[in-house]
Amino acid sequence: MIDLDPQMAAALQTFFEESRELLQDMENALLFMENAGADSERINAVFRAAHTIKGSAGLFGLEEVVRFTHRLENLLDQIRSGVTDLTPVRITLLLSCGDHIAGYLDRIATDSSLDQVFLAEDLRLLGDLAAQLGSSPVASIAPAIAPALAPTTLALTIPPSPEPEFSNSPGSVQTGNWHISLRFGRDTFRDGMDPLSFLRYLEQIGEIIGIVTLTDSLPALSQMDAESCYLGFEISFRSSANKAKIADVFDFVKESSTIHILPAHSQITAYLQLIQQLPEADQHLGEILVSVGSLTEEELQKALTLQDAGNQGGQHQPLGEILVAQKMVQEPVVQGALEKQQQQREHQVVERQMLRVRAADLDQLVNLVGELVIASAANSLYAAQSNAEERVESAAQVARLVEDIRDGALHLRMIDVAEVFQRFPRVVRDTARTLGKDIRLEISGEGTELDKSMAEKITDPLMHLVRNAMDHGIESAERRHALGKPAQGCISLHACHDAGGIIIEVRDDGGGLNREKILGKAIEKRLVTPEQQLSDQEIYALIFAPGFSTADQVSDISGRGVGMDVVRQNIEAIRGSIEIHSTPGAGSTMRIRLPLTLSIIDGFLVKLATDTFVIPAESVEECLEYPEQQGTVGYMVLRDQALPLLHLTRVFRFDAQPEKRRNVIVVRHGQSRVGMVVGAILGNQQTVIKPLGKLFDQVPGISAATILGNGDVAPILDIPALIHHHTSAKHSY
Amino acid sequence: MAMEIQQERQGANLQIRLSGDLDIYAAAPLRTYLLTVLQQHHEIELVLDEVAEVDGAGLQILLATKAEAMRLGVILRLTGHSAAMVRALQLCRLTAYFGDPVILTREMAG
Q1: Is residue A437 a part of any domain in this protein?
Q2: Fewest CB atoms within 10 Å of the CB: A120, A251, A366, B24?
Q3: Global ipTM
Q4: A595, A618, A639 — which closes off a domain?
Q5: Is the pLDDT of residue B110 over 60?
Q6: Is residue A545 scored above 80 in pLDDT?
Q7: Is residue A127 domain-shared with residue A205, that is, in the same domain?
Q8: B92 and A188 in contact by Cβ < 8 A?
Q9: Are A339 and A465 found together in one domain?
């Protein structure tokens, strides 16, 4: 990538993001139509996506992308106009083309070269597109690609003169020059601006091919105000600069002046619109456009005749309708133009509603809010100590507002889990084809929100789990038939909130995990010994061990034995956990449990001797008084069930005497419930998680620390670790 | 350089030499002046060989003067264009509009 000024680089970044979103929309629409049949609304959506990407890529001079997308658009255009049907073969081709464009974008974004494989794919797709278009491969493809077969780097350049093929699209004008229409504001001189200097500057970034100075609005010498500006210009301009750069020339006068910039080969309709918008008489203006060289005489006549015809009808038909009614312009062209307007309007609305914010700024904000939470807690504490009622009240109000701000700030980072799931229809479709299985995907629980950074990190593990379930979980069609199951397998992705965390499940209706096979393999790989007594859960968990794979045949999709351990590592890296539930013959469920956010939790403060500890409130189920009269120490009976007890003073080796009044906090993680025996209960408080230094991060049972309002440091208990430690070690508490 | 106007009567005709900057600062007085002389003379020659700078406001006055002269039937000739004048006219492709012969020196052409 050549050097870009920061503004341009930022714009390019936006282009990448928007294009990826558009490609995703395109894919969604195609997949929907593959199942539900073609509908014009979605075909249009696909076309628009491709069209917008092409347009924006052109703006940045990404020739290769424009070239490729242009061919894609040709096919889409035929499908849209009904010349060609949207067959499954074509859907597959269109999907591949979408991937290929994404490939282009990735390579440009990372500044990497186009390797042989990529270019071969390029050639193949262009060939397929040409075949689907019913034309012989376009002659210009070969020379365009052949020299590129050697690895090349994409350059951000703009062709000195646009390729002729673009000018041939129906309805666009012949000239390859920009047309700039300027009407300077009356106050231009008074604002210290000189129209001539803008023209001179324009000459520096391109060539003024034709210019007409307009004197139409210039009053008679006796009437004019010598210090007002009456000048206007129609300019035909040749330049390799993009629209933004040309528009930048007029940055200082854009508020006060009327400026229209039409790109090369704009539709005639765009010129017509220009003619209509400008104050001068249409015929006169049209002649000016001809004289500067932006329109040919025929193009002008065509446009004006059409417009006259419309006006004489006495009704103001929309321009597009006139053109179509007159059969002068093909419908798609007009539709394209109108859609483009519509789309730009929609786009502007969206832009006004959404704001792109740098993730780093957001993190900074969340950090500050964290500090604010601590400060507010201190404030409340001192207010309470001061015994001044008003102060306590106002501190409480501040605390409540801070809480709202915290929720708001955290919410900014949240995205809908649907954004994570949206990639999966395609993954399932493609994987199913590769495997030769008929599998559908069901998605539920959209609307569940999770932290964006978490969403990014969970996608890969999910992808692996889904592929794995499709490959190993779901049986072949014959086997399913023999078992009396429906021939079509089903993978479902589900998300929901649970106990202050998020659960994401990958379910399949396949054969379930083979307990014996896993155990056999594990013994063979010396992961466990035959003597060990293992629960089903523990056996299933063995598939997460490094190097474990039970697939008899290594397939493309999975079965290489790498991955499941990586899946677990990735999930644990974001403080999540994974468990497996499986029913032989009926399928298995991979349940991923993730924390809601990574930085602030609602803490439940408890006292152990003189120290304060924090239990994440999300894992607290209930609090009880410790039954001192009960004889046993290791468990208590809670509603006729045994509840294992964990004496935290013993876990952390406090030497202090048992407190007089002890409490039991019932905490849950997954299916396990444990009663934590603690001293006094101090109540709920928002807690900013401060990571422990390297020295302390190995301390068992403590996941992090927080700073209390009075400045004390309180460790945050690592509930999953404590429960795990307790249930596996079978302590004699 | 503030603009100076020198005029020299040649019978019924008037020769006016504009020197200095033909710009926004000169525009208002120049307009008043030209408006007056256009009423009083049948033929006016504007000598532009000492015009140092031209801006949009100055050019606009010339355009309006030309239009007014045509309306009144006054013959208006622009002569001896300085390099700056030629550049301004060429930039806006206005040479043909005024219709006066422009002599390009080598410096201007080059």
Answers
A1: yes
A2: A251
A3: 0.91
A4: A595
A5: no
A6: no
A7: no
A8: no
A9: no
Question: Strand pairing partners for A219?
Answer: none
Q: How many CA atoms lie within 13 A of A730 on its CB side?
A: 0
- Subunit contact B34:A221, Cβ cutoff 8 A: yes
**Which strands, in side-by-side order, build the sheet including A439-444?**
A439-444, A489-498, A501-508, A587-595, A577-583
Which residues of A fall within a CB distance of 8 Å from B65? Answer: 221
Q: What's the total number of domains in chain A?
A: 5
Q: What is the residue extent of each domain of chain B?
A: 4-104
Is residue A168 in some structural domain? no
Q: What is the pLDDT of residue A560?
A: 45
Question: In this structure, is residue A348 part of a structural domain?
Answer: no
Chain segment A296-332, per-residue pLDDT in tens: 777 777 666 656 555 544 444 444 444 444 434 444 4
3-state per-residue secondary structure call for A175-189: CCCEEEEEECCCCCC
- Residues of chain A with C-beta less than 8 angstroms from the C-beta of B64: 218-221, 224
Return the pLDDT at A631.
Answer: 62
For residue B31, the model assigns a pLDDT of 92
CB A676 within 8 A of CB A725: no
**Do A81 and A36 share a structural domain?**
yes
Q: Which two tokens stand for residue A649?
A: 């003073």
For chain A, the residues whose C-beta falls within 8 A of a C-beta of chain B are 184, 188-189, 194-197, 199-200, 203, 210-213, 215, 218-222, 224, 226-227, 229-231, 233
| Chain B residues near residue A207 by CB distance under 8 angstroms | none
Cα separation of A11 and A209, whole Å? 29
Residue A167 lies in a domain: no
Q: The domain containing residue A639 runs over which residues?
A: 600-729
Please name the member of B65, B91, B97 whose beta carbon is closest to the beta carbon of A221. Answer: B65
More confident call, A684 vs A509: A509
DSSP string for A200-244: HHHHHHSEEEEEEEE-TTPPPTTT--TTS---EEEEEEE-SS-HH
Q: What is the pLDDT of residue B46?
A: 92
Over residues A637-647, the pLDDT tens digits come to 888 888 888 88
Domain end (from A122, A157, A192) = A157
pLDDT (0 to 100) of residue A309: 53
Do A386 and A533 belong together in one domain?
no
pLDDT tens for A61-91 read: 788 888 888 888 888 888 888 778 888 888 8
| Residues of B with Cβ-Cβ distance to A233 under 8 angstroms | 92
CB A505 within 8 A of CB A442: no
Topology (CATH level 3) of domain B4-104: Transcription Regulator spoIIAA (3.30.750)
Beta bridge partners of A688: A600
Q: A560-570 pLDDT, tens per residue?
A: 445 677 788 78
Model confidence over A134-171: pLDDT tens digits? Answer: 654 443 333 333 333 334 444 443 334 333 333 344 55
Determine the Cα–Cα distance for residues A79 and A40; give it in Å rounded to an integer: 9
CA distance A195 to A232: 9
* Same-domain status, A31 and A47: yes
pLDDT tens for B93-108 read: 888 888 888 776 665 5
Q: Are residues A559 and A476 in the same domain?
A: yes
CB–CB contacts below 8 A, A to B: 78
Q: What pLDDT sits at residue A711?
A: 72
| CATH number assigned to the domain comprising residue A437 | 3.30.565.10
Across the interface, of B38, B64, B88, the residue whose CB is closest to A224 is B64
* A307 shares its domain with A197: yes
pLDDT 10s digits, A661-673: 888 899 887 667 8
CB A233 within 8 A of CB A212: yes
β-partners of residue A453 are: none
Answer yes or no: do A218 and B67 touch at CB < 8 A: yes
Q: Of A194, A196, A226, which is closest to B61 when you measure between CB atoms?
A: A226
The amino acid occupying position A86 is L
Higher pLDDT, A275 or A549: A275
